[in-house]
Amino acid sequence: PYISRCTVCSGTQYTFARHSYSNDIPECPPNWERIWAGYSYLMVTGGGGVGGGQDLGSLGSCMENFFLPSFIECVGRGMCSYYVNNLDYWLAAKKDPIPGMFGMGRIYNGLDDIQNQGLSRCAVCAKKLPAKKRFL
Predict the structure, then answer these.
(1) Higher pLDDT, residue 131 or 97
(2) Measuring CA to CA, how many Å separate 25 from each of 38, 88, 119, 121?
(3) Nearest C-alpha neighbor of 90 from the set 65, 124, 125, 126
(4) Which is nearest to 24 in space by CA: 35, 34, 39, 42?
(5) Is the separation of the CB atoms in 125 and 16 below 8 Å?
(6) Tens digits of residue pLDDT in 69-114
(7) How far is CA 129 from CA 14, 59, 122, in A?
């Protein structure tokens, strides 16, 4: 439907992403507040050995929305496309007991099941700033 643009902002607060490895949104530590909650995103791969990943502590590893495909390439003159050989990797929710790797052997019925049961949830946390002291 549309292609969004992003803006990178810098600030004075410390921030990080926290992943639950479950369907539950993790809590931020004491004296930290949640900026947003989302789904744990790892990386995308493409043809010819290209791709990119995210450090799990970085804000980019916690995507507010779950989209497939997650990346669209625009090549100029308003022409944009996505490619079927691009693969998105999202962090799976660990369900006990599952033999082998996370998510292996589990069958999901459509994207709703994957989103609601199969993906790890995350939260982006920011350090609360101390209240400014006022001198009268």
Answers:
(1) 131
(2) 8, 21, 11, 5
(3) 65
(4) 39
(5) yes
(6) 666 667 777 777 766 666 777 788 876 655 555 555 566 666 676 6
(7) 9, 19, 22
Q: CB neighbours (10 Å) of residue 85?
A: 8
Q: Residue 116 in 3-state DSSP?
A: helix
User: Hey, how many other C-beta atoms are within 10 angstroms of the C-beta on 42?
Assistant: 14
Two tokens, residue 112: 């709703």
Q: Which residue did the predictor score with more confidence, 129 or 84?
A: 129
How many whole angstroms separate alpha carbon 2 and alpha carbon 79? 12
> What are the Cα distances from residue 6, in Å, to 9, 43, 92, 109, 131?
10, 18, 26, 32, 30
Q: How far is CA 9 from CA 6, 12, 13, 58, 59, in A?
A: 10, 10, 11, 14, 12
Residue with tokens 């292609």: 3
Higher pLDDT, 34 or 136: 34
Helix/strand/coil for 61 = helix
Q: How far apart are the first and last CA of the chain?
A: 55
Greatest pairwise CA separation for the chain in angstroms: 66
